[in-house]
Amino acid sequence: MALGEAISAAGDGGHGAGADGLREVAREVRLSVLRMIGRAGLGHVGGDLSVADILTTLYFGVMHIRPEEPRWPERDRCILSKGHCAAALYSVLALRGFFPTGDLELFMRPLSPLNGHPNRNKVPGVEANTGPLGHGLPIGVGSAVASKLSGSNWRTFVVLGDGELQEGSNWEAAMTAGHRRLSSLTAIVDRNGLQQGARTSDTNDLEPLADKWRAFGWEAVEVDGHDHLALLDAVTAPRDEGRPRCVIARTVKGRGVSFMEDRVEWHHRVPDAEQTRAALAELAESGDAR
């Protein structure tokens, strides 16, 4: 499926692109991320590449949204808690129609709305200002509480980095969500196993991660975070009405670029011009953004 067809297939409610379409959109997201970061000389390319399939699946396969009406009251909400991976979010929002794709060239320029961390007051489609880690899930809990109190049907999705799960605020929020039985809330953990400077297992081991979420009253499932159909199933499968759901998406940092994959230095290292060209060529030649 061509990129334009994949985007068109998403339709009004965010459904219909299918596995081939989602794969093609995710590849364009990765290409866009590399162009943006290469041009700006700033960014977090490794995490952007690992989260691309998760964001693509949500915005093109799951969420009920209206890009032409970003603040539509009944929209589903997605909060990117790992806000340092804003380049991936901006790329997805632009491809989904929230703003022109040409605006991506403004990434990280002085006074640009497309800053290194997303700002809901400046960028259509951004639901929360995130940057300091550990804030997205508490905000998402508030969103889910609001949905429940108002009798609305919108859903809230929070995308977290695995390293940020060392922040205690996340576990306070998780405990609250379980207690309040917030079944409209879904947390998706970008579980690439790496954080700034080290592996998560060396810094503060998170395993058994699924059991920890279950202990706080959540459903928890583990999937391949680069398998769009598996992500779709995990997010949309029928759930216990009394529990929020955590999807632990096993991913690879730097996914799709061989010299970046599973390398801790690419958390915040920026590719030079030659590396950017090589990465773009590798992705362009790959049929599945591998």
Mean pLDDT, all residues = 94
Oligomeric state of shown chains: single chain
Secondary-structure content class: alpha/beta
- Tell me the radius of gyration: 17 Å
Strand line-up in the sheet with most strands: 1-2-3-7-6
Order of helices and strands: HHHEHHEHEEEHHEHEH
Strand content: 5-15%
CATH architecture: 3-Layer(aba) Sandwich
How many DSSP E strands? Answer: 7
Q: What form results from the Cα inertia axes?
A: globular
Which CATH class applies here? Alpha Beta
Q: Low-confidence stretches at least 5 residues in length (pLDDT < 50)?
A: none
Number of domains: 1
Give a brief description:
The protein contains ten helices and seven strands. It has 290 residues and is α/β, with parallel strands linked by helices.
Could you walk me through the main structural features you see in this protein, from its secondary elements to its overall organization?
There is one protein chain. This protein is an alpha/beta fold and 290 residues long. The chain has one domain: 3-Layer(aba) Sandwich (Rossmann fold), CATH 3.40.50. 42% of the residues lie in helices and 11% in strands. It has ten helices and seven strands. α9 links the parallel β6 and β7. α1 crosses α2, α2 packs antiparallel against α10 and α3 runs parallel beside α4. The protein starts with a helix and ends in a 5-residue tail after the last helix.
